[in-house]
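User: Could you check the structure of this?
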Amino acid sequence: MAKFAPLNLSAEEIKDYTREWTGDRFDDGRPRVPDEILKRMKAVTITEAWGVLRGKGYEWQYEDGFVCTHSGETLVGRALTAMYMPRRPQMRTIMEAKGKDAGCIGDQISWPIDLLVEGDVYVADVYGKIEQGAVIGDNLATSIYSKSGNGVVHDAAVRDIDGIKELPGFASFVRGYHPSFASPTIMLVGVNCPTRMGRVTVMPGDVVLGKEDGVVFIPAHLAEQVVQTSELVRFRDQFGQQRIREEVYTSGEIDRKWEDHIESDFSQWLEDHMDELPVPREAIQELLKNRTW
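Assistant: Sure, the predicted structure tokens are below.
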């Protein structure tokens, strides 16, 4: 698609700025983290993901202060980003002409939605606007969900919350609710560009993990490591608690760095329970192959 906004990144630019990712990509250049990783990501806690990212030098990948439209639900998907700024009439007029030439239809707030595919999460920086900040209501939310199967993360309010809550699975993280709408006051300056979300820089293709305690934006090349680390923590907890109940080890032995004989016992336990654990056999085999204990 032709460049219709000044901050749009081309596919080649996205590939360059996300060069750590070596897997498949969408035609727009975004990393295509496998669906299986996204499925397993739903069980990861915010704390686990945040810990892995900090250990890799990504200090600013967590943002809180959101309202979740569907309390208690989890949001996972690949980021499609958009950045809005206060309207500047001549600039918006030029972008609307460019958008028309590029085949964009309707108001600018619809353009990112038309680019969504299954598994995407629409991540939009609307600079925290509440009054005249909503870029979606229940109609556009319905369109988003039909294309992506997911909700959104917006640094802004949404409107028509009653209708949005009626969309099952549309767990979204927003700054609040307001009956007004943003279109007369804003302009779309970039899609699939680096986008600020509070204290986070979000890149196109980042994996979005949203839960009750906030949202983590995971660089694509670290998504599998986040999942595997979380699974290992859960397996070790399950093993340790079982062995305490069986009185094989004391709580003091489990609640510290494990001695070699406990690590060996854990490795054997993983192999023995491979078909009973809530993770694919192939993932556990990979974990065992790469184990360092």
